[in-house]
Amino acid sequence: MSSYPLLFAISFLAATVVPLGSEWLLIALLLQGLAPVPLVLTATAGNFLGALTTYLIGLYGGLWLIRRLLRIDERAQQRAERFFQRYGSWTLLLAWLPVIGDPLCLAGGLFRVPLFRFSLLVILGKLGRYAFIATVISR
Question: Percent of the chain having pLDDT more than 90?
Fold first, then answer.
């Protein structure tokens, strides 16, 4: 598999409950000399679409999907919901964080955050993370 589709796939899976990170692959590809902008955009797109999948499960899925497919336990979901209720949809800027990011995206769906707002906030957060990594590594 070539570099960009692999980065996209790993970034997508990393935004679900699959225990992966995508930063390591981004860093490896940057160190190989690939152009930072296409890499950052590819990783962001994959990671956003993975988060969107979780959002849609929150929006349309039932408790079975949340527990079985996403494997988000009740405690993690309640923690994310409290955080989300306290700080509002702005918390979606933190969807890139490990552990809490997936439940935040789920909460975005459960609380019916409009799709445009969800997308804008999640993309900004994820793009910011990847751009920061690319900037540090490409120096």
Answer: 60
